[in-house]
């Protein structure tokens, strides 16, 4: 009797176990799913924290490198320019010519360095910052050349104008603008240059119009000018290749006697 009673009690205990009750498998499945969800959530959160830390470290390093470049190489270029300028005043005509060339090269190097430092600066990573930088370059360069400059900025467009822009895109875009503005000042014999920006459908359109001679060649074509051997369409071909490498494009409309219009089209994201 004792054995039967014990057996009956053990059977009752097993039958009354929570895992043997109706709906228990569903509860277990829900618990497993919940545990998996919590685990995945922790993994995703940990990964995001890691990515954020890496991003902050990269930005910090970019800032440090750009500051070091500006403080070291920038000072070297400035010193070369100053020393060559001082020596030029005491040199012969031939020496003065060579010193003047050294001074121009030093200024070009300083300008290139400035672009690199600016492109690396995380604090200058928006489209608005790019437009300000490009407009400042065009205004200063054309003013020094005695050419009128008009800047047309885009209106506010739903926050796109202040969105972050890739350093790669900014670097190629500013070099493209500088090449185009220099061409207008050097080869077009223009009295006025207009630089404009338009933002549409996640694209940035940049146009440079001048009222010069209107003899700008298409990319790869030879320039019809006395110094064609130095200023052919190779620079424009390089400009076209630069823009195409980042998903952009360029169109040139040049009409003799009526000036040249250059339209560049760039993505806001790679």
Explain what the structure shows:
- The protein has six helices and five strands, in the order ααααβαββαββ.
- It is of the alpha+beta class and 270 residues long.
- The chain has two domains: 1-122, no CATH class; 125-270, Histidine kinase-like ATPase, C-terminal domain (Heat Shock Protein 90).
- The longest helix has 65 residues, at 24-88.
- The chain is elongated, with a radius of gyration of 33 Å.
What labels would you give this structure?
single chain; 270 residues; alpha+beta; Heat Shock Protein 90; five-stranded mixed sheet
Strand content: 5-15%
Query: Please, what is the average pLDDT?
Result: 77
Helical fraction: 55-70%
What gyration radius follows from the Cα positions, in whole Å? 33 Å
Question: What's the level 1 CATH class of the largest domain?
Answer: Alpha Beta
- Secondary structure tally, helices: 6
Q: At CATH's second level, what is the architecture of the largest domain? A: 2-Layer Sandwich
Briefly summarize what is shown.
It is built from 6 helices and 5 strands. It is an alpha+beta fold. Helix 2 runs antiparallel to helix 3.
Describe the protein's topology.
Blueprint: H1 2-15, H2 24-88, H3 93-120, H4 127-144, E1 148-152, H5 167-186, E2 192-200, E3 203-210, H6 234-244, E4 249-255, E5 259-267
Parallel strand pairs: 1-2
Antiparallel strand pairs: 2-3, 3-5, 4-5
């Amino acid at each position: 009797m004792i054995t039967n009673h014990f057996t009956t009690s053990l059977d009752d205990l097993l039958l009354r176990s929570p895992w043997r009750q109706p709906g228990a498998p569903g509860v277990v499945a829900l618990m497993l799913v919940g545990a998996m969800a919590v685990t995945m959530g922790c993994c995703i959160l940990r990964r995001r924290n890691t990515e954020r830390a890496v991003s902050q470290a990269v930005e910090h390093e970019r800032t440090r490198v750009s500051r070091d470049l500006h403080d070291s190489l920038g000072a070297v270029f400035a010193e070369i320019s100053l020393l060559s300028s001082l020596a030029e005043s005491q040199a012969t005509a031939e020496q003065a010519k060579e010193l003047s060339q050294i001074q121009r090269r030093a200024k070009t190097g300083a300008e290139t360095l400035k672009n690199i430092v600016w492109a690396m600066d995380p604090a200058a990573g928006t489209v608005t910052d790019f437009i300000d930088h490009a407009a400042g370059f065009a205004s200063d360069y054309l003013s020094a050349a005695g050419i009128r400059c008009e800047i047309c900025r885009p209106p506010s467009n739903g926050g796109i104008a202040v969105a972050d822009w890739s350093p790669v895109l900014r670097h190629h875009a500013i070099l493209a603008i500088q090449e185009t503005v220099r061409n207008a000042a050097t080869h077009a014999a223009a009295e006025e240059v207009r630089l404009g920006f338009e933002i549409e459908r996640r694209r940035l359109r940049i146009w440079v119009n001048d009222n010069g001679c209107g003899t700008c060649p298409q990319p790869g074509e030879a320039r019809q000018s006395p110094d064609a051997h130095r200023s052919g369409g190779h620079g424009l071909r390089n400009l076209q290749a630069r823009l195409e490498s980042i998903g952009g494009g360029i169109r040139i409309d040049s009409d003799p006697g009526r000036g040249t219009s250059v339209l560049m089209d760039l993505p806001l994201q790679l």
